[in-house]
Amino acid sequence: MEDFALILLGTALVNNVVLVKFLGLCPFMGVSRKIDAAVGMGLATTFVLTLAAASSWIVETLILIPLGLGYLRILAFILVIAAIVQFTETVLRKVSPGLYRALGIYLPLITTNCAVLGVALLNIQAEHSFAESLLYGFGSALGFTLVLAIFAGMRERLAQVAVPAVFAGTPIAFIAAGLLSMAFMGFAGLVPN
Amino acid sequence: MITAVASMSALGLGLGLLLGAAARRFHVEMPPVVDEIEDVLPGTNCGQCSFPGCRAAAEALADGAAPVTLCPPGGRETVLKLAEITGADPDAGTATMDEALPLVAFIFEDHCTGCTKCFKRCPTDAIVGASKQIHTVVTDACIGCDACVEVCPTEAIILRSKPITLRTWHWGKPEQRFGAPVMGRLS
Q: Is the pLDDT of residue B106 over 80?
């Protein structure tokens, strides 16, 4: 139980996918202008990342390892992740049109999110069990959502203040991202590796 | 080698079948009129109608939530077709619409004073020129937004329909998709 709590804490805060592992930077800069959009993107990613972490573990253990096809890992994982995203979209459209409309364009965008593939690969590298993989994916996604929401909040405030012309727009956002990253360094050492 | 090919093919085939089955099983019944409307729209997803893509515009049109004149690139021809499908009045708002061809800016070079006002206003950098030099328009980059026409002090810029060249000419859209069933009109 304690292990699981540590994994969750470690992935969400200490080894944050965005700020420490530098994965998923594209939505971090791209979809962080408004807090609503950021939270929507975060929730969609949480959903896909957890599923992708679990299913890539299944593919690795049931197909790639028994057949000795470790070198096809990236190919197989991309295939599985793309299929999951497409499947989720199809099902959501039927089951919950409201959520489908809320997630909207974010869902297909996640197919090409490097955090999703990155976490699946990190899981294999760390030789996690199934439950650990699931939690690792979920924790990473939680961290992603948290950072995206915080950063979107910062950018919403930045949009209202008088920023010097040289820094206006994206440059100040990058500086803010750096400061946020440094703030998250405060979590380092919270969980023993 | 053979295991690799076979297993990846099997994985792809399995996932493909799963997706196909899911698409069948979770098929969302859309009124056929939406497909019909989407065929009429240009399909470039330019967003000038303020909907995210032609599909969303088609859905709004089918609901009656959008006017048939919503599509600027489609022009008059699209409005008439849409009006025929939805049974709306095509004349509402068509008077202000131009013919179907997209417009681009054109600079009369003997009137241009090289003041660079239009050059600064152009959102797509489609105007080439420098101070005291005669400007010209890069037709491929111009979106016909009208911003330069307003600022020109000598009225040297007009919007005119895009000249068709060998590079821009293309086949017209076919009337009907192959194999698509002929659907009855709403009205």
A: yes
Quote the CA–CA distance of A154 and A150 in Å, as a whole number: 6
pLDDT at B187: 39
Residue type, A100: Y
Out of B4, B11, B19, name the one closest to residue A86 (CB).
Answer: B19
CB pairs under 8 A between A and B: 45
Question: What secondary structure does DSSP assign to A108-130, as a single string?
Answer: HHHTT-HHHHHHHHHHHHTT--H
Nearest chain A Cα to B7, which residue? Answer: A63
Q: What local confidence, expressed as pLDDT, does residue B56 receive? A: 82
pLDDT at site B14: 92
**Chain A touched by B32 (CB under 8 Å):** no
Burial B83-118 (b: 16+ CB within 10 A, else e): bebbebebeeeeeeeeeeebbbbbbeeeebeebebb
A79, A104, A105 member nearest B11 (Cβ): A79
How distant is the Cα of A93 from the closest Cα of chain B, in angstroms? 7
Whether the complex's predicted ipTM is more than 0.85 is answered with no
Nearest chain B residue to A59, by CA: B11
Give pTM, 2 decimals.
Answer: 0.62
DSSP A47-115: HHHHHHHHHHHHHIIIIIHHHT-GGGHHHHHHHHHHHHHHHHHHHHHHH-HHHHHHHTTHHHHHTT-HH
